[in-house]
Amino acid sequence: MTKKDALDDQTLSLVHLAAAVAQGYEPDLRERVSHAFVSKVPVEWVFEMLLQSVLMVGYPRALVGFSVWHTVTSATGPATDADSTYDNVAAWARRGAALCEQVYGENYAKLRANVRRLHPALDGWMITEGYGRTMARPGLDLLRRELCIIAQTAVLETPRQLHSHLRGALNAGATHAQVEAVLSVVNPLLALDQWTAVKNVWRRVREGTEISE
């Protein structure tokens, strides 16, 4: 049994695709889209992963991901979506705060205070747009969302965000084996020093130490 066996085939394929979106290399992205399609990864999972990728990798690479998915599979998004307008802002704020607290656990209040110090608008956007409008959408469960974010933050070399979402995945119910399965996906995509840094972040999470310590 390999580390990747801790994830079902569809989840593993989705994580591979998330990592490819973060890399932004279209030949690899086309290959991963084809594999996800053949593996019958639910289309709704893919769309939700691509939508949340806007938060992690930005519009340019998320749009490339959507474009490659459409080109390879001919799949299109739904005709309408409840979150396509700003009619639900109040609901986004409520569900965003609840979900963010679930992800960050006992560090939630500290996170909000730290982000608010950076800029109050950033705190509001994080809760309303990030967690409420995007991460709290139905269609993909929180565990799989967090596993995809682990893959993307590892590829992007953002250790603080990786640390937060490694803990977030555990708070969402991930096992250590599932987290390590995701890390084994990104391992071949990273240089040795990058991979060493990722392993060190995961070690800190397991030990319960902060990234700055």
Protein described:
- The protein is an all-alpha fold.
- The chain folds into 2 domains: 1-76 and 144-213, no CATH class; 89-138, no CATH class.
- The chain has 10 helices and no strands.
- It has helices at 9-23, 26-38, 43-73, 89-104, 108-118, 120-135, 142-155, 159-171, 176-186, 192-207.
- The chain is globular.
- The chain starts with 8 loop residues before the first helix and ends in a 6-residue tail after the last helix.
- The mean pLDDT is 96.
Query: What assembly state would you assign to the polypeptide chains in this entry?
Result: single chain
Q: How would you characterize the largest beta sheet?
A: none
Question: What's the alpha carbon Rg, rounded to whole Å?
Answer: 17 Å
* Low-pLDDT windows of residues: none
What share of residues are in beta strands? Answer: under 5%
Give the N-to-C terminal Cα separation.
35 Å
Tally of individual helices: 10
Structural class: mainly alpha
Q: Overall pLDDT, averaged?
A: 96
Helix content: over 70%
List the helices and strands and how they pair.
Blueprint: H1 9-23, H2 26-38, H3 43-73, H4 89-104, H5 108-118, H6 120-135, H7 142-155, H8 159-171, H9 176-186, H10 192-207
Provide keyphrases for this structure:
2 domains, 213 residues, mainly alpha, 10 helices
Can you describe this structure in just a few lines?
73% of the residues lie in helices and 0% in strands. By secondary structure, it is mainly alpha-helical. The protein folds into two domains: 1-76 and 144-213, no CATH class; 89-138, no CATH class.
